[in-house]
């Protein structure tokens, strides 16, 4: 938050550009966590400074984050932004620091399963970050009844505010659980039909999936499928 004050004072501007100063003081700051409970989202502060003194870390619920009084069903975090789906299956991107929201128009595709959404970005040195949303879903009616087990993939570009379908993208794997974002790309734990476990990454720049090997295999992963 202090970074916003750089333009008010030349000495502060120089100080906030000092990496050593920033690193030393960032370590002293309390960790900020987003917590979801039912259909509400809360801001949580965790103070880790007392761990070295054999004290448990302190946890404080600093407030309820309210975005236009909607009931939030799922959240996905990327680079400080939250991609949220509501209980009535609407979609929006939310900046919890400023309170700004941006509603996303549905793609118009007739899908059977509820869509899975992830937020990411393509980095460009000249134009900065270009944010995109990836969704995967079954098209048409019940895929079990119709024998259609393939998913369609669609990309939404926030800059152009438009959806488009990704064709010719192999999907010879299955995914269990939610994904996490790292440097603008989402990652999942996945397995193929030969029961090989691996990390699956979607590269938003190339708009393709990539398989990453794990350092070990664990076969009990399939016990409850």
From TrEMBL:
Residue ranges annotated for the F-box associated beta-propeller type domain, each copy included: 32-218
Stored Pfam families: FBA_1
InterPro entries listed in its UniProt record: F-box-assoc_dom_typ1 (IPR006527), F-box-assoc_interact_dom (IPR017451), Gal_Oxase/kelch_b-propeller (IPR011043), SCF_F-box_component (IPR050796)
Protein name, as recorded: F-box associated beta-propeller type 1 domain-containing protein
Organism the protein comes from: Eutrema salsugineum (Saltwater cress)
Lineage per the UniProt record: Eukaryota, Viridiplantae, Streptophyta, Embryophyta, Tracheophyta
């Amino acid at each position: 938050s202090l970074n916003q004050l750089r333009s008010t004072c030349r000495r502060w501007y120089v100080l906030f550009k000092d990496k050593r100063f920033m690193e030393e003081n960032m370590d002293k700051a309390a960790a900020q966590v987003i917590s979801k409970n039912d259909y509400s989202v809360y801001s949580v502060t965790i103070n880790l400074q007392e761990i070295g003194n054999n004290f448990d870390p302190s946890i404080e619920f600093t407030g309820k984050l309210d975005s236009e009084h909607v009931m939030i069903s799922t959240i996905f975090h990327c680079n400080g932004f939250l991609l949220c789906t509501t209980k009535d299956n609407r979609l929006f991107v939310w900046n919890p620091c400023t309170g700004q929201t941006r509603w996303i128009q549905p793609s118009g595709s007739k899908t059977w399963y509820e869509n899975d959404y992830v937020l990411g970005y393509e980095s460009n040195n000249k134009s900065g970050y270009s944010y995109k949303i990836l969704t995967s879903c079954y098209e048409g009616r019940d895929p079990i009844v119709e024998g259609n087990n393939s998913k369609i993939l669609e990309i939404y570009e926030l800059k152009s505010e438009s959806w488009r379908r990704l064709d010719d993208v192999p999907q010879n794997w299955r995914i269990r659980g939610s994904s996490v974002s790292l440097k603008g790309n989402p990652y999942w734990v996945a397995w193929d039909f030969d029961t090989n476990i691996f990390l699956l990454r979607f590269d938003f720049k190339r708009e393709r999936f990539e398989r990453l090997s794990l350092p070990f295999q664990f076969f009990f992963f399939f016990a409850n499928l």
